[in-house]
Write a structure and sequence with these properties.
The protein is of the alpha/beta class and 352 residues long. The protein folds into 2 domains: 2-137 and 262-312, D-Maltodextrin-Binding Protein, domain 2, CATH 3.40.190; 140-260 and 321-350, 3-Layer(aba) Sandwich (D-Maltodextrin-Binding Protein, domain 2), CATH 3.40.190. It contains 15 helices and 14 strands. The strands form 4 sheets. A 5-stranded mixed beta sheet has the order 1-3-2-4-12, sandwiched between helices. A 5-stranded mixed beta sheet has the order 8-7-9-6-10. A two-stranded antiparallel sheet has the order 5-13. Helix 2 (57-75) links the parallel strand 2 and strand 3.
């Protein structure tokens, strides 16, 4: 898989990020942050570090090139964007533990809240950018091998005997949390919110999981490059990219119920202030909402927040899916307390 090979080559030049649990891989170039918050017209290069989650590698490779050109033309300042990728939860912990991120573009709001609680991001960040600081959205789908030998059509097919499921670990991967909640919503509808039956369903689903990688890209690699599993529970953009690269080998199945996944972005205020990158960080995240950036977002399989541009790519996405939202679970704080904290429901059903 070309994307996986590229990631390995780039990762070999990566800067290290310390993370609790699994370590996030980094796509980066050398250089230290320089300049000041008002921009730099002296010809000196300003380095901006974006700590992101696994599946955004290709998106930000394209966006960074666009942004660097835009910013140089607008201000005369050269910006070098350094990129780091890994499981979203692990990436958040790496920033808390000292990784010098100027901005974070993570899989879910809760991971950025952890950084806020560490005193590195100012309160109110969720309202700093449009659409609750989510310049793009996604959802969760199934990726199966061409022909769909196990006839997988919906979540209940994943608990059948002999179905080998690949999904990442909710303890380290934001995408995995979205996966879990989408499956839970399906089972809640199926069993009229009978919690014991829902737990039984989820336990059967995770009993069929043969590999639980630390991040979504690792799970894609397991399924696509290593040939393991019958079905990958995947970010929509990961599934789209795989089918585009291997049109004769894979297909996407849209379940009857999924979830509106809202990746979040924020300036890491304390780091940006120390690095003198506050203004360029603000511009970097704001420009994600520009028409040019929204086009790149759509081309990379994410759903643009701009409804007009989303409509232009309607043939790329299944816009008829029934999607629940994180608010149906009481928000991320409540969802973590109920499902993902140590000793919560995920640990219970997974036998930990």
């Amino acid at each position: 898989m070309k994307r996986g090979i590229t990631a390995l080559l780039v990762a070999s030049m990566a800067i290290g990020l310390t993370a609790c649990g699994s370590s996030g891989s980094s796509d980066s170039s050398s250089g230290s942050a320089s300049g000041d918050s008002s921009g730099n017209a002296s010809g000196e290069v300003v380095t901006l570090t974006n700590v992101s989650y696994d599946p955004t590698r290709e998106l930000y490779e394209a966006y960074n090139e666009l942004f660097e050109s835009y910013y140089a033309e607008k201000t005369g300042t050269t910006v070098d964007v350094v990129q780091s990728h890994g499981g979203s939860g692990s990436q958040a912990r790496s920033v808390v533990e000292g990784a010098d991120a100027d901005v974070v573009t993570l899989a879910l709001e809760h991971d950025i809240t952890l950084i806020e609680e560490a005193g590195l991001i100012e309160s109110g960040w969720l309202d700093e950018f449009d659409e609750s600081s989510s310049p793009y959205t996604s959802t969760i789908v199934f990726l199966v091998r061409k022909g769909n030998e196990k006839n997988i059509r919906d979540w209940d097919d994943l608990i059948a005997e002999g179905v080998d499921v690949i999904t990442p670990d909710p303890k380290s991967s934001g995408g995995a949390c979205w996966n879990f909640l989408a499956a839970w919503e399906y089972a809640s509808n199926l069993y009229n919110d009978d919690e014991e039956q829902v737990k039984s369903f989820m336990s059967a689903l995770y009993a069929n999981v043969s590999v639980m990688d630390s991040g979504a890209r690792g799970a894609t690699t397991t399924f696509v490059e290593n040939g393991q599993g019958d079905v990958l529970i995947a970010w929509e953009n990961e599934a789209i990219a795989t089918v585009e690269e291997y049109p004769d080998e894979y297909e996407i199945i849209s379940p009857s119920i999924s979830i509106l996944a809202q990746p979040s972005v924020a300036i890491v205020d304390a780091n940006a202030e120390d690095d003198g990158t506050t203004e360029v960080a603000q511009e970097y995240l704001s420009y994600l909402y520009s028409d040019e950036a929204q086009e790149i977002i759509a081309e990379n399989g994410y759903r643009p927040s701009n409804e007009d541009i989303l409509a232009e790519y309607a043939d790329k996405f299944d816009l008829d899916m029934q999607l629940c939202t994180i608010e149906d679970f009481g928000g991320w704080d409540a969802a973590y307390e109920t499902f993902f904290n140590d000793g919560a429901i995920f640990d219970e059903i997974y036998g930990q």
